[in-house]
Amino acid sequence: MPSIDIIVPKSAPRRWQEIVIRRLQADGYDIAILHEPRSAAWPGAVDAALAFERTIFRRRDPALAAPLSEISENPRNRPAAFRLDLTGSAVSSGVPTIALRFDGFTSDLSVAKSVASGTLPVIEAVLDGETVIDRAWPMVDRREAASLGVEDVLARAITLSVSVVHAFAGNRLALSEQTSPKPSSSVAGTTGFSHAYLTSALPRLGREAMRRARYRHAHWRVGYRFAEGPGVASTHALGSGWSVLPDRGDHFYADPFPLQWQDRFFLFVEDYPHATGKAVISVVPFDAAGVPQEPRCVLEEPYHLSYPQVFERDGSVWMLPEASSGGKLVLYRATEFPDRWAPEAVLIEGEISDATLLEHGGQLWLFATDRDGYGSTSDTLVVFHAPRLTGPWTPHVLNPVLIDRRMARPGGAFIRERDGRVCLPVQDGTLGYGGGLGISQLLELDEKTVRLSPPRPIATQGDWPYPKIHTLNRSGRLEVIDGIAAVRK
């Protein structure tokens, strides 16, 4: 494995930088650690504000932004193959050097100010101060909390750092784009953060606390319609004709997946009781007149289940629900459709979300998001391939394929258009989780390449009353979506 010099602050390094080092050491790289004495520590007021918030939210896990007393220096006697500068301020040398920029700033302190002000940071990996070799658009899940938002961004700083090292070492750098003019090496320190925190972050936190006192944190509703012609994926608009699947208000339905089976329609949903905080999978049969019947639970595990992708293959009906909180992706087979399901195989270990199946080029593929240990579950796309449904499933060589809150997380099954195009509904987290959906076209897919087009947003005009949507599916004439509703406690 290549030898790497990793440059960290001499004074008050951050935990995220230590994790990058540990991750690369575990991957077998020959790591030397160098100190950069010019890297400034974060102001104490920033650390105090973030620590105060974490106390409010009862977060006892070590923060990625937490300052450490030191990361011990461990230099080498010979030149490294390349350097990873985690300070952004290392002196240039003859050794290729990768550094991160946060919204153009070289200091990770800018993350705290950006998140406090309500903006969504972009991280660039820059080679030798001149060429952008990769970018990350981290998802910020809890925008009312600056401390948790900073964690989400720094989590993807870890993911991006490890990813670009793998790409550089494997000669797989994807981008070759000149950077913007000379980066800023500093940010407005305590004053800039304090102003953003007092005028933006604290009011957001107060508004969210008031909202949660009166309303459910999240309450999704499922919409359905029977359509003969082109659907949402073709028109890129919701349009009209939607009906709302009724709920009693004490639980919600989300992540709808329909299946037309033996001339009948069945709708599988995430069924989330607010009292338990743990969802099960329920089925909603439709009668001959297209009227939904009472939902009933068909699959429950000790952990949360959602995204019940159902499909027919090899003479059986299968379900591939999300179970990221259980730490594994399990394939189920219907033993008595639609009510009885038996686990068939564990396909992938890890916090895999919304794994979506595709048959393409003589292989099976899964597109999903991976939490990668920390941060959001919605911004890091990973792809796997296998010769058969039960595996073995192999990670794509480009994993993570992208880090992008605008299109990383699937929002429904792949769609094959009549003109031969293959498209994927993708969640757009720009306005927060469940903020919207787009349609991306699959441009290229094989064991060396994954390319999706930028998503085309779905216009929400029509008679569907909940424009913040995050799932779209269709089976035969039955088309389904979901949207988040404001429901009082």
From TrEMBL:
UniProt cross-references to SUPFAM superfamilies, sorted A to Z: Arabinanase/levansucrase/invertase
Keywords: Carbohydrate metabolism, Polysaccharide degradation, Xylan degradation
GO-annotated biological processes: xylan catabolic process
Domain Glucosamine inositolphosphorylceramide transferase 1 N-terminal as annotated: residue spans: 251-442
UniProt keyword Repeat, yes or no: no
Lineage, top ranks: Bacteria, Pseudomonadati, Pseudomonadota, Alphaproteobacteria, Hyphomicrobiales
Full protein name: Glucosamine inositolphosphorylceramide transferase 1 N-terminal domain-containing protein
Keyword Chaperone: no
Highest taxon of source: Bacteria
Coiled coil: none
